[in-house]
Specification:
The complex is a heterodimer. Chain A is built from 15 helices and two strands. By secondary structure, chain A is mainly α. Chain A has a two-stranded antiparallel ribbon with strand order 1-2. The chains are: A mainly alpha, B mainly alpha.
């Protein structure tokens, strides 16, 4: 007779555990059925490509030949000898620090202020602030910041007497990152902003009434004690969207100041990955670059999730 | 529904600390910020009706002196020279956009409801996979996606424009976050009454999720409308508007006017959908009893 060790008493065996899992899977058949349509397409067109791309960072892959395993050499090159990558880290951090938090706060602030208006005005203002992220108009920004006197900014400053010669907004290393940040901020009131607007609309009226009875006297108190605590899911959504858009920004700079930009002043990590992936066809190296970026974004989202959890509970 | 309107008015009077002065200040602030936000789009519209000789004059004007529709005419002329009639591109775009939007909303809503409100083996894992997939951006994914699609025989097939966009992790994440606010007691009550999960989802949960659903419709429409068909289909009769309109407005400042016309032309449908959907969002007043 096998002796049962003291610590095993009360624990289930592996077999029993598997049986329980199977029972609860069977009990939740309906859940899986409702998940299935989404999951089938999600797995085929997102999960499989992502999983296939994960090991690419450890290979030398030029899209024509089969990938060759090279261990960690992509990563060591990246951090030890790629000076432009180190520069792109700096640019990305500056870019993300300026656009991320600022536009996150702007999204929330504007969504809240719009919520204070008459319903008809709400629709109009929401459209006004969201419209820039619907329109992909880089040409107009090129004309606004154009380096000759036909540019709107230059002619405006000239008329005010602030400059005598046109400023090369899009090619002078001193200005290009700033210009890119302005344009990025302008288009950044996107998904997060709309989700927050929807969140405001979903707050139950009775919460406000209860708050008024409990002694809330101003809009500010209402915001802090009623609105923010009940908007945690939307705040988290907006945060994730903001992290993605501010860290992966690169298209704005590429379309606006050209690629590569002067002295790599607007060269983000994503632009660097584009350079190696689609210009030099070194997909393995590009993949390693993206992996570094992913790790940073993942840590960032965990941090925000922790902060939001502490604040809104 | 006059009844709803009056109760809404009463409710807004009961809200704390609403002074007319404050509301006016907010309006003025939003107006100024809004003008700044709209300026580039306004300029786009203005430039799309400027004749070529007015585009590069000093000082640049904030309005068109002799507005003309010739830029739009040039764009349509460029499109007419294609072998396929213009209406075919419109049909492709509408068909793809409508089916992607509809399927995305239905699939994401059901999955989001289950992930937010049911406990079952694997649920937590799927939830974190969704967030990770949003954060993992890599240009290698597109190559792998292409390989998967060619294995499935989808390359140069019109379905290649629809199927990859049907499951949007962003849409699911949005809906899941919103549905998680519904109290469990409501769903429990429905279960006690004998409703199945499918019925609870569509008859109890979704009617309360109008703001999130309408927001999802806006996102889905916008992304589907802008799908670039170039890499997945090669036959001219399968291409969609964004691809051919970009071709017609071949880049460069010399054809800036046509590019602006193309941008304005492509912007109209998303704005119409936005207005329709957003009105629905605003009309939704959360009724008492939804929240705990």
């Amino acid at each position: 007779m096998a002796r049962i060790a003291d610590e095993d008493i009360g624990k289930r065996t592996k077999k029993e555990e598997r049986a329980m899992l199977w029972r609860s899977v069977k009990k939740n058949k309906a859940c899986y059925a409702m998940l299935a349509p989404f999951m089938i397409f999600f797995i085929v067109f997102t999960v499989i490509p992502v999983v296939m791309s994960l090991p690419m960072g450890f290979t030398d892959f030029n899209m024509a030949q089969t990938p060759k395993f090279v261990g960690l050499s992509n990563y060591t090159t990246l951090f030890l000898s790629d000076k432009i990558f180190i520069e792109s880290i700096r640019v990305t951090i500056v870019f993300a620090l300026f656009t991320g938090p600022v536009s996150y706060v702007l999204c929330f602030l504007l969504a809240w202020l719009i919520n204070e208006l008459h319903p008809k005005l709400k629709t109009i203002f929401t459209l006004i602030f969201y419209a820039p992220s619907m329109a992909n108009v880089y040409t107009v920004w090129q004309i606004i910041f154009s380096g000759d006197m036909n540019g709107y900014v230059n002619s405006f400053l000239f008329n005010l007497g602030l400059i005598n010669a046109p400023v090369q907004w899009l090619t002078d290393g001193k200005y290009i990152l700033g210009v890119c940040i302005v344009v990025q901020l302008w288009i950044s009131l996107g998904a997060g902003f709309l989700a927050l607007r929807a969140g405001f609309q979903n707050i139950d009226r009775s919460m406000y009434e209860a708050g008024a009875i409990e002694g809330i006297r101003t809009r500010w108190q209402e915001l802090i004690y009623i609105v923010i605590p009940s908007m945690r899911p939307q705040l988290m959504f907006a945060a994730v969207m903001q992290i993605v858009s501010s860290f992966t920004a690169g298209t704005v700079a590429q379309n606006l100041v050209g690629f590569p930009s002067t002295d790599y002043k607007a060269h983000t990590i994503m632009t660097h990955a584009y350079d190696y992936g689609w210009v030099r066809y070194e997909m393995g190296y590009a993949s390693a670059i993206c992996m570094v970026l992913f790790v940073v974004m993942f840590l960032c989202s965990r941090l925000i999730s922790k902060v939001l959890g502490k604040y809104t509970d | 529904m006059a009844e709803v309107n009056t109760s809404e008015l009463k409710a807004s009077n009961r809200q704390a600390g609403r002074k007319t002065g404050g509301t006016v200040a907010i309006f003025v602030f939003l107006l100024i910020a809004g003008i700044f936000m709209l300026l580039p789009i306004y300029l786009t519209v203005v430039m799309s009706v400027k004749p070529v000789e007015e585009l590069f004059i000093f000082p640049p004007k904030l309005y068109a002196m002799r507005p003309t529709l010739s830029n739009f005419g040039d764009m349509f002329d460029a499109l007419k020279s294609n072998r396929v009639p213009f209406s075919r591109y419109v049909f492709n775009s509408v068909a793809v956009t409508v089916s992607v939007t509809a399927l995305q909303c239905v699939f994401a809503s059901m999955a989001a409801f289950v992930l937010a409100k049911c406990r079952f083996p694997g649920g937590k894992l799927i939830n974190s996979v969704i967030v990770v997939s949003l954060l993992y951006q890599s240009n290698v994914i597109y190559i792998m996606q292409y390989m998967v699609m060619s294995k499935l025989g989808l390359i140069d097939n019109p379905l290649a424009l629809i199927l990859p966009s049907v499951a949007s992790p962003m849409g699911l994440f949005l809906m899941r976050q919103s549905i998680s606010q519904i109290p469990d007691s409501m769903i429990e009550a429905a279960k006690v009454d004998g409703a199945g999960l499918f019925r609870i989802c569509w008859q109890i949960v979704m009617p309360n999720q109008k703001p999130a659903l309408m927001t999802l419709i806006i996102f889905a429409f916008q992304s589907a409308w802008n799908i670039q068909s170039g890499t997945m289909v090669f036959q001219e009769q399968y291409k969609m508007l964004p691809t051919v309109v970009t071709q017609a407005a071949a880049s460069g400042l010399a054809r800036a006017g046509v590019a602006m016309a193309a941008a304005v032309f492509m912007l109209v449908p998303p704005i119409v959908v936005f207005m329709l959907a957003q009105r629905q969002v605003i009309e939704t007043m959360a009724h008492s009893g939804i929240k705990d």
